[in-house]
Amino acid sequence: MIKVGIIGGTGYTGVELLRLLAVHPQVELRAITSRAEAGKPVTDLFPSLRGHVDLAFTAPDAAGLEQCDVVFSATPNGVAMQQARELLAAGVRLIDLAADFRLKDPTVWETWYGVPHACPELLEEAVYGLPEVNRQRISKARLVANPGCYPTSVQLGFLPLVEAGVVDSDHLIADAKSGASGAGRKAEVHLLLGEAADTMKAYAVAGHRHWPEIRQGLEAATGKKVGLTFVPHLVPMIRGIHATLYARLTRDVDLQGLYESRYHDEPFVDVMPAGTHPETRSVRGANTCRLAVHRPQGADTVVVLSVIDNLTKGAAGQAIQNMNIMFGINEATGLSQPGLMP
Amino acid sequence: MIKVGIIGGTGYTGVELLRLLAVHPQVELRAITSRAEAGKPVTDLFPSLRGHVDLAFTAPDAAGLEQCDVVFSATPNGVAMQQARELLAAGVRLIDLAADFRLKDPTVWETWYGVPHACPELLEEAVYGLPEVNRQRISKARLVANPGCYPTSVQLGFLPLVEAGVVDSDHLIADAKSGASGAGRKAEVHLLLGEAADTMKAYAVAGHRHWPEIRQGLEAATGKKVGLTFVPHLVPMIRGIHATLYARLTRDVDLQGLYESRYHDEPFVDVMPAGTHPETRSVRGANTCRLAVHRPQGADTVVVLSVIDNLTKGAAGQAIQNMNIMFGINEATGLSQPGLMP
Amino acid sequence: MIKVGIIGGTGYTGVELLRLLAVHPQVELRAITSRAEAGKPVTDLFPSLRGHVDLAFTAPDAAGLEQCDVVFSATPNGVAMQQARELLAAGVRLIDLAADFRLKDPTVWETWYGVPHACPELLEEAVYGLPEVNRQRISKARLVANPGCYPTSVQLGFLPLVEAGVVDSDHLIADAKSGASGAGRKAEVHLLLGEAADTMKAYAVAGHRHWPEIRQGLEAATGKKVGLTFVPHLVPMIRGIHATLYARLTRDVDLQGLYESRYHDEPFVDVMPAGTHPETRSVRGANTCRLAVHRPQGADTVVVLSVIDNLTKGAAGQAIQNMNIMFGINEATGLSQPGLMP
Amino acid sequence: MIKVGIIGGTGYTGVELLRLLAVHPQVELRAITSRAEAGKPVTDLFPSLRGHVDLAFTAPDAAGLEQCDVVFSATPNGVAMQQARELLAAGVRLIDLAADFRLKDPTVWETWYGVPHACPELLEEAVYGLPEVNRQRISKARLVANPGCYPTSVQLGFLPLVEAGVVDSDHLIADAKSGASGAGRKAEVHLLLGEAADTMKAYAVAGHRHWPEIRQGLEAATGKKVGLTFVPHLVPMIRGIHATLYARLTRDVDLQGLYESRYHDEPFVDVMPAGTHPETRSVRGANTCRLAVHRPQGADTVVVLSVIDNLTKGAAGQAIQNMNIMFGINEATGLSQPGLMP
């Protein structure tokens, strides 16, 4: 059994980790921390876990995290980088669900996250936890930077095109739509049901923190600079990301074949038949990225539709997939539930 | 492995059976029928099951249902009663998720469902599949009438009170609210998102088919006539029933203790702490009925809050719970996922 | 033109006042205050008002409210009672949309709102602004206590029964369901779309502040004590209240006739035909209370269905209706839009 | 008073026409037809109109439409072209809310709508009813083709760019998101709340009927061929379109100034300040198109955000705007309500 701790368990990625780990057959959940809720049973906050999780939240210091085999950090950005050295020194592996170790360049981090990086010396070692790209390195990693939700859906959608070099990678467009849980379990007026239901809007068009993360990933895949326009939108649903991707083809290619061969052996990427349209609900609560590729009117613009559950493949599910890889067990363990439909 | 067939797999109870049975460790799914969709892969209709269900729909006659150990009938009302004799004669056990075998009196059936009953001789044998009442009889049943969604939530909420004889059972009130999936996967204008979102309404106040079913259950528990006012409402959510129950206390009683002791050993009924309010999402996709009991202002009116997922504990989950009981395996097998929250 | 000021214009009742007053033909909007947003154009917060409202928020002290003919106070509970004396002394009429002047007994106020009342001497003068009960007194009032949203829907539903004395008023039951805007435009986790969408729950079953307000109104109508069980629920919609009311008949009566005659001359109460079920969307954005009355199965329990828009007839619309009455203009002025459907 | 008739009043564009015309001060509503509902009061279908519309539906033949000054045709595609000649011959002006007269080339019509055009000789005369382009011609028109919902939002968003010739018009991209009412009030499974809530999807990526309509409009504006990728999406809201538009700049330009000057005098196009993001709810029930223009990271891709209410500016509101222009009255008459927010 893998001994697991969670830092910061009161947010959406925290409760999603709990939902999945509670029934993971090879995990023993040892501790879940929350400074604000220390001492309170987890099920007081999350009654859906009654009968599944007996733990109470503990203060971070008292949690005995150093006894764990692996710790998931589900805290806001900027917290994990304060704790990483100590945990690694204690022989604990760390999977950070926030952004702290995603960007390789600490100056880019500082530009987008507003504070200097607290342990830049770990950035090189940290492995970007997108298994479809870095599976081998993840299997040996001490420190995994779990990808952002938008970056997961957008990179998995673009990768076959940019790896094959068949599109103009100076002018990629990602029009991404997210449910409200993507913004976290934070008390903010614009996320109230009264504000965010039955309406939609774009946001952060001038620049979103996931933009440099996506570019870094695509540039690693192509080996050159990538131009990307990224427009996120908030749509009135709880979970789910729908990324609609646009690129201009620079040469003719069998798009369906390209996608099917790229993801043929991937357990959590599902290439849909040509001509279809994946729905976000088809992956609700599931760790799958579902893709379809189109070339409307036979013109030179390719359109990729990529859906994930932002909390599962976009966060906690992918983190557990990474854990499974790190501990050498079947990658799909604990992640094999179909999506909840309807 | 239990060999399982499903009749009528294109509705919401059908797809919910598939979702749960696909990962049930002791089930082999043999056939799923649909006259309209015969020949089409199940995943064409339900892409959420891609990678989980390889079957195609088959015509009812060609499905080889007589080779199954058990068949779930997930058809509209009035279909299972046409097929029950034949299946039972072939040694197949039958769990009907529709209403055909729920009412013991065929004249009551005809009054509420508008057609004469096709095999009244089986009504006596049929066991009403509410495990919290009939577990022993279910374990030996050939034919189980799986309860309706409203009746499950309302009966589980009222049973401790009426069994203990502590309320005026001539004037019970059940104000029940259901998500739209309770009405089925039918193309009807009033169920469109454009009609049913961001609004709510009561319906069928003059009389709903679940009214006689609830009364029958409560009368069996008390041994006398029961007076019930039942008002169902459609609320803008996909899954979930919230039943708010009102009864007048005829004597003083420790309500919390009464509920806790009644359901102490029940794996799928969760009595919440005094003073709490269960949310439907806490059981989203889960087979749990979650209850809380209140006595506002210390007056003589008791208020019970009862939530279920109409498709799980209110339909397919409970049907699988019944199957587990019928085949002598752990009652919770395949039903242990926490609710999907958020 | 009536010169109008609004205190506290950043909440939902504030913006609803603005939406309606912006096109009210006999109103000149002079000032809208907000300490937090002083100096900011109203349309920065509420772009839906672009082209309709040119004002900026002003600090309360600088707003020149004493120059207005009438001021709407759309602040949290406990603020208007601090300002009432001064405004009235300046000859300004005051319509308070919060609870400060609704309860006649200052000890009941203190029990439910947790602070002593700041100007109990005004409670007697304050007129409870339910035009269907107090139209004459409203027409002469300096100070109107605009009713709460639940109390409006519940009282309008029960009044014909209790005024006629045809039900057991010791055991009234009000099962009320509200959209999320009823909780206000406050940054609270449980009101997030991620928490409140696709789910529902009861809340405050032990006691809600609208319970004494409803009782007070019904007791005034009957002249005796009333027993009321009031259970509010949060449902996943933006606007709308659906109150489902239950009472036991003590004598036979033509219910449909009773309701139609009670509300025959009321411009904003619509009694639906017998056997129908009003939807909340039928009054979305409209100042109407729509009612239907049922007697299921001919038993002795009467069921009343009462829907309003909590922000319109349940708050800002009713406040403007009161203003129209106070200033002797047509009661429906500025309030004649049909509901937004779909 | 303008005497108005409506053909086909049971769909969403029909009821939206009724909502707006019921309070239009210069309209007398004479007849509303529906073959299926003939004889039934309009308010039986649409209780939101109780107290506002006294008409019953009449059979098309008996409606006396030839006595009207103007008829709105709110029928499915292909109906208005059967009736146009006769109405025009009777001296009635016709505003068609369907697609029958939008495409100038009858072969393009036949390609996309599957049937030959019934009166191609009227296509030249028909005026495309986008007032921001064709106001002068609309004022003299007998026959107006009211634009589609997507085409309204996309054209208003792109027009300043293509008219000024500052973008590569061979590679325009329109990523459009619509609420469910855009698909009409039709009983189709995929539009059920249980299917379309809490999820989203793209659809018709291979080709949507609004694609040739948008291209025709943009080509008229530029005088040359336009290349357009158009991807519509269904999002879980009732009303609203959010079009996110992408184009590559071919020369530097003051984008904000370009948009503001283009729409300076337009009563129903609102250019938001630079850096903002319009929400669909800001135009809920309003006849406004609200736009913002961005140039992320200073790169050469311009992003335009364009929101409308698909039933108002995208259908019935724009049709009434056209009527106002045709009859020489103030263009905003009856259309001056702010959006319903929240």
Write a brief structural summary:
4 copies of one chain form a homotetramer. By secondary structure, the first copy, chain A, is of the alpha/beta class.
Structural features, described:
The structure is a homotetramer of 342-residue chains. Chain A has 342 residues and is of the alpha/beta class. The first copy, chain A, has two domains: 2-125, NAD(P)-binding Rossmann-like Domain (Rossmann fold, 3-Layer(aba) Sandwich), CATH 3.40.50; 149-309, Dihydrodipicolinate Reductase, domain 2. Chain A has ten helices and 13 strands. Chain A has helices at residues 12-21, 42-45, 80-89, 106-113, 131-139, 149-164, 193-196, 210-222, 255-262, 312-326; strands spanning 2-7, 27-33, 70-73, 93-96, 127-128, 143-145, 172-178, 201-202, 228-234, 241-248, 269-271, 289-294, 301-308. A seven-stranded mixed β-sheet of chain A has the order 8-9-7-10-13-12-11. In chain A, strand 12 and strand 13 form a beta hairpin. In chain A, helix 1 crosses helix 10, helix 5 (131-139) runs parallel beside helix 10 (312-326) and helix 6 (149-164) packs parallel to helix 8 (210-222). The longest helix of chain A has 16 residues, at 149-164. The radius of gyration of chain A is 19 Å and the shape is globular. The mean pLDDT of chain A is 97.
Low-confidence runs of chain A = none
Number of domains of chain A: 2
Portion of residues in beta strands of chain A equals 15-25%
Q: Could you report the average pLDDT of chain A, rounded to the nearest whole number?
A: 97
Range of helix content of chain A: 25-40%
CATH class of the largest domain in chain A: Alpha Beta
Biggest sheet overview of chain A: 7 strands, mixed
Q: Greatest interface and its residue counts?
A: B-C, 49 and 49 residues
